[in-house]
Amino acid sequence: AAGVIQSPRHLIKEKRETATLKCYPIPRHDTVYWYQQGPGQDPQFLISFYEKMQSDKGSIPDRFSAQQFSDYHSELNMSSLELGDSALYFCASSLVVSGRLQETQYFGPGTRLLVL
Amino acid sequence: AQSVSQHNHHVILSEAASLELGCNYSYGGTVNLFWYVQYPGQHLQLLLKYFSGDPLVKGIKGFEAEFIKSKFSFNLRKPSVQWSDTAEYFCAVAYSGAGSYQLTFGKGTKLSVIP
Predict the structure, then answer these.
(1) Alpha carbon distance B39, A53 (integer Å)
(2) Residue A60 and residue A75 in contact, taking contact as beta carbons nearer than 8 Å
(3) To 10 degrees, the CA torsion angle through A72, B49, B32, B53?
(4) Tell me: the pLDDT tens digits for B39-80?
(5) Quick one: pLDDT at residue A48?
(6) Is A95 an interface residue toward B (CB < 8 Å)?
(7) Over the range B93-114, which residues count as b (16 or more CB within 10 Å of their CB) and which as e?
């Protein structure tokens, strides 16, 4: 079965640079989520999109932005990178119909970002 | 704010021992409950989920969990662990009031199984 695809899998950037992470949800899933997992930490919710509109916002820094495109893929844009942004960034997708969760979140393999 | 607490930070067991990992959540409304497993360097994999119905849910790899609404708990169990179960286990909750049902995770329990 198709899974959530993320690219790139690994990314090395320097401080103050920008990065763009991409996520391709499971086909027919309408909701995309971004999570950040620091070393030894639990995943923290950043932001979500439902039907291409921002749905909820968590602990996402103002330096980050995200969007969901017409084909449902999503991109997380990170600017002015800081050392503390080094983490694993997961994308997940699910199916929410009429405000009810129909299918649980399935996670992609993650993008490991290292900021030097 | 809603929260999820996992009772144990690190659990060490011998193979064939029984496992129970505790999970409690703070929200009193309708919730969807999950357990995810994360092998070293890997992504989160869904072990099992509870949406409604039978409070005893069975998942993959022989895991099961019981939802006890009165105790706000969703404990994970496995009767006999294997070395390959060594991983980190996260309990997660999606609240019905949280628009897109984003997950709130517990801090995780690291399980080490000794052969």
Answers:
(1) 33
(2) no
(3) 120
(4) 988 889 999 999 889 999 999 999 999 999 999 999 999 999
(5) 92
(6) no
(7) bbbeebbbbbbbbbebbbbebe
Task: Tell me the three state secondary structure of residue B84.
Answer: helix
Asked whether the CA dihedral B111, B74, B23, B20 is positive or negative, the reply is negative
Q: Whole-angstrom Cα distance, residue B82 to residue B115?
A: 8
Q: Report the residue from B32, B34, B43 with minimal CB separation from A109.
A: B43
Residue of B nearest to A38 (CA): B107
Query: How wide is the angle at C-alpha A45 spanned by C-alphas A90 and B97, nearest 5°?
Result: 130
What is the Cα–Cα distance from A108 to A91, expressed in whole angstroms?
6
The residues with which A57 forms a beta bridge, in sequence order, are A47
Measured in degrees and rounded to the nearest 5, phi and psi for residue A63 equal: -75, -15
Residue B99's pLDDT band, with cuts at 50, 70 and 90, is low
DSSP letter assigned to residue B105: E
The pLDDT tens digits of the residues spanning A23-79 come to 999 998 888 999 999 988 999 999 999 888 888 889 899 999 999 999 999 999 999
List C-alpha distances in Å: A49 to A46, A53, A66, A72. Answer: 11, 5, 9, 9
pLDDT at res. B111: 97
Q: Nearest Cβ partner of B43 from A44, A48, A107?
A: A107
Query: Residue B73 is encoded by which pair of tokens?
Result: 């708990």
